[in-house]
Amino acid sequence: MNAADIVSISTLIALIMLFIAMLIAVVRVIIGPSLADRVLALDLLTVLAMGFVGAIAIRTGLTLYLDIAISLALLGFMATVAFARYMLSRLDGEEAQR
Q1: DSSP letters along 15-80, please?
Q2: Shortest CA distance to 42 belongs to which of 75, 68, 71, 20?
Q3: Is the dihedral of CA 11, 15, 21, 25 positive or negative?
Q4: What was the pLDDT predicted at 96?
Q5: CB 25: neighbour CB atoms within 10 A?
Q6: Which domain range does residue 74 map to?
Q7: How many structural domains compose the chain?
């Protein structure tokens, strides 16, 4: 068993584990009891997708995938900030009604 076989097997295991984690996160997005749970699950999905893209980059040897992972990280950060601002404005609106 050479190094290429070890890398291939380990990236395959990582991809399978990341896929299972993505399924669990999607379930949390769907049944999350609160908006905060859904936002955290979406943020987790972004991180897992970055890991998925990183594992594919290692598996294929193409560094182009790392650029995709960086853009996905930026998109996830912006989405998290937008959801946080929405939740903050929603809380401010509820306090104003009281």
Answers
A1: HHHHHHHHHHHHHHHHH-SSHHHHHHHHHHHHHHHHHHHHHHHHHH--THHHHHHHHHHHHHHHHH
A2: 75
A3: positive
A4: 65
A5: 21
A6: 3-97
A7: 1
Rounded Cα distance, 85 and 93, in Å: 12
Residue-level pLDDT, tens digit, the chain, 98 residues: 899 899 999 999 999 999 999 999 999 999 989 888 888 999 999 999 999 999 999 999 999 999 999 999 999 999 989 988 888 888 777 776 66
Tokens representing 8 are 């291939």
Buried-exposed string 41-76: b where 16+ CB fall within 10 A, e elsewhere: bbbbbbebbbbbbbbbbbbeeeeebeebbeebeeeb
pLDDT of residue 1: 87
- Rounded to two decimals, what is the model's pTM? 0.84
